[in-house]
Amino acid sequence: MSSPIAVYGGGGHGRVVIDALRLAGRYDPVAVLDPARSGAVDGVPVRGDDAAAALRAAGVDAAVIAAGSVGDPALRRRLYAKALSVGFTLPAIVHPQASVAATASLSPGCFVAAGAVVGPGARLGVCVIVNSNAVVDHDCALGDFVHVAPGAALSGDVVAGDDVHVGTGACVVQGLHIGAGSIVGAGAAVVADVPEGAVAVGVPARTRPR
């Protein structure tokens, strides 16, 4: 028996999350909370943010943050805080076609998409996104609100600070540190540490301030 869950965000990433919820079968998406939309998203009725308290009163205990981000997780942070303030729990959501090692650790609000791999000993902070076909290999440590975009790969023992964005198809070699608030551009090949608040682009990647 699946449990009802509210979905914060009805854009493209929201559709990906709704699909994963349905395929996994543990949660049933019953409402999309998104004031910028109306009608329904893939059959899930849209309601405004002000509906969250009513949903909680009706017995909906869980929520998922389904807003994507490219280098600015501020919206996801706000939605996460809103969900907590209403009293929702925020379970980690894993697509059934993802591979998550038994010894990996996923914090509340994490989302692991189809084809993604999270290796042994990897530690994911609050509300991390490991997007489609991305790899977070063994013993990586990702801070809160990190987004590893589709097809990106972090080799073993990579450490990423809070709010890092690793762009589509980028790769980071083993043992490196990516400073908080940094962006790794799409397709970049990172072979040296990235300072906090920097942008790393190119092959091999070069860094500059944001």
Describe this structure in words.
- This protein is an alpha/beta fold.
- Strands 6-9-12-15-18-21-23-24 form an eight-stranded mixed sheet, covered by helices on one side.
- The protein is built from three helices and 24 strands.
- It has two domains: 3-91, Rossmann fold (3-Layer(aba) Sandwich); 94-200, UDP N-Acetylglucosamine Acyltransferase, domain 1, CATH 2.160.10.
- The mean pLDDT is 96.
Briefly, what is this?
It contains 3 helices and 24 strands. It has 210 residues and is α/β, with parallel strands linked by helices.
| Whole-number mean pLDDT | 96
Unreliable spans: none
Beta-strand residue percentage = 25-35%
Biggest β-sheet: strands ordered side by side in the sheet: 6-9-12-15-18-21-23-24
Task: Give the helix/strand class.
Answer: alpha/beta
Provide the CATH topology of the largest domain: UDP N-Acetylglucosamine Acyltransferase, domain 1
CATH superfamily of the largest domain: Hexapeptide repeat proteins
Query: In this structure, how is the largest beta sheet organized?
Result: 8 strands, mixed
CATH class type of the largest domain? Mainly Beta
Instruction: Report the total helices.
Output: 3
Count up the domains. 2
Secondary-structure element pattern, one letter each: EHEEEHEHEEEEEEEEEEEEEEEEEEE
| Rg of Cα set | 17 Å
